[in-house]
Amino acid sequence: MFSNLPILSFITFIPAFVAVLLMVFSRLTADSGRAQLEKNASWVALITTIFVLFLSVLLLIDFDSSSAAYQFVEDTEWLGGGINYRMGVDGISILFVVLTAVLMPFCIYASQTSIKKRMLEYMVAFLILETFMIGAFVALDLILFYVFFEAVLIPMFIIIGVWGGKNRVYASYKFFLYTLLGSVLLLAAILWLYNYSGTVLGAPTTSIETLSRDLKIPGGAQTWLWLAFFASFAVKMPMWPVHTWLPDAHVEAPTAGSVILAAILLKLGGYGFIRFSLPMFPDASMLLAPLVFWMSIIAVIYTSLVAYRQKDIKKLIAYSSVAHMGFVTMGIFTVNLQGLQGALFQMISHGFISGALFLLVGVIYDRMHTREIAAYGGLVKQMPIYAIFFMFFTMANVGLPGTSGFVGEFWTLLGAFKVNPWIAFGAALGMILSAMYALHLYREVIFGEVTNDKLNDIQDMTGREIIILAPLALFTLILGVYPSLVTDITGPSVEALLASFQQAVGG
Amino acid sequence: MANVINFILPFLPELLLAFFASQLLVFGVVKKERTDLVRWIAIGLLVVFALAGLFVGVPGTTAFNGALINDDFSYIAKAIIGLAAAAALLFSESYLKSERLDQYEFSVLVLYAVLGMSIMVSSNSLLSLYIGIEMQSLALYVLAAFNRDSLRASEAGLKYFVLGALSSGLLLYGISMVYGFTGSLTFDTIGAVVSSGDVSPGVIAGMVFMLCGLGFKISAAPFHMWTPDVYEGSPTPVTGFFASAPKFAAMALIARVLMDPFMGIQDSWQQVIIVLSVASMIVGVFGALMQTNIKRLMAYSSIANMGYALVALSAGTVAGVNGMLIFMSIYLITSIGLFACILQMRIRDGMVEQISDVAGLSTTQPRLALMFTVLLFSLMGMPPLLGFFGKISAFYPAIDAGLTWLVVVALIASVVGAFYYLRIIKTIWFEEQDRQFVKPATALSVLSGVSTLILVAVLFLPFISAPVKTAFGAAAASLF
């Protein structure tokens, strides 16, 4: 269908293009038309993101899921010297594109009521953010990937800083500088790789495909490069002990910002491990896998315990994200079919679940303007629909069979068990702990006595909020009972990745 | 007669520039009130001068018995210097008028400074090198103290002069040593002596002294002390000028000196350049952290940026010079844009230059706020803005030359640097204050807008940048 169209560039750049148009219009509008413009801007943004979603669904339909090759490839001269504008998707990246495209309209729709100031700038920031996120997933060139990967920081910094909570300045700085420090090491490694490819392959290149397929890097250098890539992706993931920016950023970010952060930005880290670390540095990945396992186990157990002691709902969910990402890193570095498929599935499923949980927190925050767990209690009396949704997503977060949360965790555990049963044991312990903090949160917020008088006249979810959360619940449920929807698409690419990995390590 | 023509013809643009500058001086004395006319003529002269070499110049010609050389490198450098100086004249107008400093000498001094810089970038012997430096410096000393009634400006001018004289002393001492040990002033002969092997330590000592003297001119640490005070004290458009053309000229001169006469002792100068580079990056980024005055902050930021440019030069390759040219041009564009923004920070009582003064800019003046933000993110080296590509073209050659550790240091320094740029962005976006700046002059809005657009337009890079990149490549290659 799209054989002659640069569909990936369209999907990537349409939001940014609309954002630029919005900025131009805002300059042309007189002050009197300001209020109307702000309102219209949010609708324009919503329509744009829905259009991008439509395109990405078409992309998914047209995608040949039986092939492991990159599809819809675009390759044009860009900076010269082997640095090209390369784009393409395979079974691994297309799902992240779709995930981004699916969540964006919900975020925009939820923000229409919860954002009270500077609506136009907010929409512009979100649209630009969407461009960068999709771009990072579809880029097939290291430099192009880096451009998108790091550019994400700019709109996110502004979003946290302008529309965030009380401590927003601290949180935005911490977010920006932590991630930047990680990514500059990645940049150094990319430049080194570019240079090395020139000496080994004859012509320097930054094509991800060529580098992963043809470049054989000696062991010592592989370790250094792996560590540089790891520094960047581990911060993004985030893995223990460099996760501390995440709770701050989550707590201070506006609801939609938290959703994007948890659902998509964190996945950039996991995606990076799968796309770069495994195929390019197989020996180093084997060598350093135990390090990742132990960091993951510590992340799962330690952050689960930390989550249990939180007083702030968003912080609790943020720590639970770190714990769930521990399963992902563990799954990735088992480097077997179950582990990798589980990690991918867990990332997609966590995108929906954590996104929904942050939206749920946003629902009560908009009414009460507090995120203290202690300020709530007995919500079930006034908000029965809310209680049902919260119950569903809490259970999905814990990993109840039948929800998508279960599938991902089960597979990663299975993969880990094949490598080392003790690792699986440690992670399984984390599952129990996750039930502990999630149910604790649910009990404190939804059940119990109404301690806060203001809660007596709190309104249940509005139609808008139900429209936002019901589809997410549906996705979670469908993926939970029919996981092949995801695994059929990722399957061939993952198998191809594993085959070349085994070959590289064995031979 | 033909000999005389060949003797001076390649240098005709400079001679004409000198001639017209002197004519403008005379005209100014007679018609004191026609400063606008003088300024516009000067801008026109600079633009014509900048483009003359590129379009009608013959690379490879020398003038004055080989004292000056015209090659692709000097043509490109002159083009950039001329355009940057024209931009500086353009953005000085509104400031000079409102501060009642609008005198015709300003434009003439800028012309003389450009003349000095173009002698610097095309110098082919130690004497012309020195003459060029002194010529531009004398003009710049006066410009720094142009606001005679201001204590700060006089202090800045005096400080600049004293330290500049010291650096000239170091430079001359180095020159005399190189002359004494090689027996020649022209770069070609020195180069031949140096690459013949068996280099006397005297040449190396002379080279180090010369680099120290030149280090002053690019404000590389540890020779940076004058920079913050001079940047802060000078009138803002002069600071903007200091941050652009002279930096480029001095950097280009260093490139020529290193790659031409001293190429044979690359091992020796590489260490010096690396030390200067690391020191500048560290002093620059940590010095800038606590500044509250935007001009002082820009001073430290320029120190750090010179450190990044030196990373490229330390490679000592064609790619390194090319990377330095690309990086410095992008830095010039950014800093002209930023100073055009800073010059728009005018309230009714006069200019403001504290970081806290931009608080709430995003609500009161969204367009200025947006330009400021883009320029700062680009200076920080954030993709997808042009500054990022400047940084990778500066750093890649060093990796190619096996200096990966230096690049890692530079990248980590740029993370520290991100902090203080973020501080300005934070003040613009996250803080509230209801302060309206006076409506800026059109020239300022246009300049800052154009440079912002250039930085963003990198998305369409291949279509606009290909000829520029080819020209830079040829320029870098012509040094070797």
Strand order of the largest sheet of chain A: 1-2
- Compute the number of helices of chain A: 20
What is the chain-wise order of helices and strands of chain B?
HHHEEHHHHHHHHHHHHEEHHHHHH
Secondary structure tally, helices of chain B: 21
**Any idea what the radius of gyration of chain B is?**
21 Å
Low-confidence stretches of chain A: none
> Kindly, what is the distance between the CA atoms of the first and last residues of chain A, rounded to a whole number of angstroms?
40 Å
The description of the largest β-sheet of chain A is: 2 strands, antiparallel
Average pLDDT rating of chain A: 88
- The low-confidence runs of chain B, each spanning 5 or more residues with pLDDT under 50, are none
Largest interface, with Cβ-Cβ < 8 Å?
A: A-B, 39 and 34 residues
Percent range for β-strand residues of chain A: under 5%
Q: Residue-averaged pLDDT of chain B, rounded?
A: 88
How far apart are the first and last residues' alpha carbons of chain B, in Å?
Answer: 33 Å
Give me the secondary-structure category of chain A. Answer: mainly alpha
Any idea what the radius of gyration of chain A is? 22 Å
> Helix coverage percent of residues of chain A?
over 70%
Task: Give the overall silhouette of chain A.
Answer: globular
Strand order of the biggest β-sheet of chain B:
1-2
The coarse silhouette of chain B is globular
Overview of the structural elements:
The complex is a heterodimer of chains A (507) and B (480). Chain A is mostly helical. Chain A has helices at residues 7-28, 34-62, 91-114, 119-138, 142-151, 153-163, 168-201, 208-214, 219-236, 245-252, 255-280, 282-308, 313-334, 337-368, 379-382, 384-398, 404-419, 421-446, 463-481, 484-506, and strands spanning 71-80, 83-89. The longest helix of chain A has 34 residues, at 168-201. Chain B is mainly alpha-helical. Chain B has helices spanning 2-8, 12-30, 35-56, 72-98, 105-121, 126-144, 151-182, 187-195, 201-217, 226-233, 236-242, 245-259, 266-288, 294-314, 318-342, 361-364, 366-380, 386-400, 404-430, 442-456, 461-477; strands spanning 61-63, 68-70, 346-347, 350-351. Chain B is globular, with a radius of gyration of 21 Å. At the A-B interface, helix 1, strand 1, helix 5, helix 6 and helix 7 of A face helix 17, helix 18, helix 19 and helix 21 of B.
